[in-house]
Structures are given as C-alpha cells and as structure tokens.
C-alpha cells in the first residue's frame, strides 16, 4: 500500500507538551534504507494519526544510528495517536521492511519542555514535499546540523537545573550565535502506550542546538572551552550530574523539520 503524500507541504507550528527522543540501532549498512522508507512512507501517516514528526537524523559519529523526535498534544493524545498508527494500515504495510533494518528500537526518552516556551517552534517551516513514488533527496543545502546533549541528573534536580540553564547558559549560547532549538526534562508520567517501552527511570535535561554546519559547531565548542562564565556554570552543575553527558551530532534528513537553516 502506498502512503498518500501531499503535493505541497503546509506550514507546521509546534509546541508539543510531550516529546519522544528515539535512538535506533540499525543493522550494518541499513540506515539509508530506513531513511528512504521513513521519509517516503511513514511521516504523513503518523501525523494524520495525531502526532508531529519533529525531526529525523543521521548520527554523524555512529553510522548505524537513526535518531528522531516526535511530539504529542499530551499523554492521552499520545496513547490515541500511537494506537491509531500502529494498529493502522500504513504501519501494517511497512513494518516488516522497517523492522528488518533494526537491531534495537527501545532507546526512548519521554520528555516535556524544560520551561514555558522551551519546546520546538517550527512556525513557518515547511516540510519538503515528496511526490508518490519519489525517493527523498539525501543531501540538501538548507540542512545544518543539530547537537543534542543529554545531561543525566540526580532525582529531583531537573527543575532547578532547567531554571539555571535558562537564566545563565542559554544567554551565553545565544551570544555566540548558537540556536537553542529546544530544551526538555524527563516526563515522569506513566507510559500511556506500554507496547512501546521508554527509559522510565531516567532523570535528564536535554538541550537541542542548531548550527550552520560542523565547522560552526567546532568554533562554538572552542569558544566555550576557554569561557570563564561557561566553565563556572558547568563546575557548579557537576553536583547535579550522575554520569557523563551524552552528545549527539546529527545531520537532518531531507524531510526533517528540525535542523533546517532559515
């Protein structure tokens, strides 16, 4: 069954109160096959079921990882949207092909915006249109890179950490030209769709930052490596961290919304 795709893409605005960060470990050499399937056949069906596909990415440092984000209007809406999609005809038509590319799809963090306005704002963004039967374009000049940092925190520290990050770290990032696209903390509500597991025991703060390209990100890192204010912020934050921060350097696929340069 072919997935019906729009001839032209409509603008999408987003402030999802519930977001999943999904990291898939794939079989060697299968990432491009999954991306072609995902971008070409699985986006519109999920959005028609009531979710928003925020962004999907190639991990620049792990060639067999596919990373993506999707948003929901709430936990009940998440349950309904996932049931509609995973019990529906589009997933039934393509699940075997998708699952055949994967080793593990259970690395999932359930998140909520870290403060008011910290969710993704995709107002005015348009997803690249794709005619039925057409394959996604794998390289697009409008794509930058996205860096996701996952900070593992002691239980109960998320709110205070997020408040300090908003007040101190975010302005420093903006001053250097980095675009803080979103920030999240763990959503501790019970998983409303247990058929898809999440890492329920985690306590995380996540920043999502956009850069023009890998060189711009490298310049940003070099600047902050010698910034007294930045180093002081993280020296104080060490008391809240329980293990090393995870850094994901990601390249958006051709039909990703998050990560596009505007």
Task: Give keywords.
alpha+beta, eight-stranded antiparallel beta barrel, 27% strand, two-stranded antiparallel ribbon, 6 helices, 262 residues, single chain, Alpha-Beta Plaits, disordered N terminus, 10 strands
Protein described:
31% of the residues lie in helices and 27% in strands. It is α+β, with helices and mostly antiparallel strands and 262 residues long. The protein has one domain (11-126, 141-252): Alpha-Beta Plaits (2-Layer Sandwich), CATH 3.30.70.100. Strands 2-4-3-10-7-9-8-5 form an 8-stranded antiparallel barrel, surrounded by 4 helices. A two-stranded antiparallel ribbon has the order 1-6. A hairpin with a 5-residue loop joins strand 3 (52-59) and strand 4 (65-72). Helix 1 packs antiparallel against helix 3. Mean pLDDT is 90; it is low at 1-11.
State the low-pLDDT regions, or none. Answer: 1-11
Main beta-sheet strand count, sense and barrel state: 8 strands, antiparallel, barrel
Q: Give the helix tally.
A: 6
Strand content: 25-35%
- Helix percent band: 25-40%
Strand order of the largest sheet: 2-4-3-10-7-9-8-5
Cα-based radius of gyration, to the nearest Å: 18 Å
* Overall CATH class: Alpha Beta
**Which structural class best describes the helix and strand composition?**
alpha+beta
- Helix-strand pattern: EEHEEHHEEEHEEHHE
Arithmetic mean of pLDDT: 90
Give the CATH topology: Alpha-Beta Plaits
Count of β-strands: 10
From the spread of the alpha carbons, the general shape counts as globular
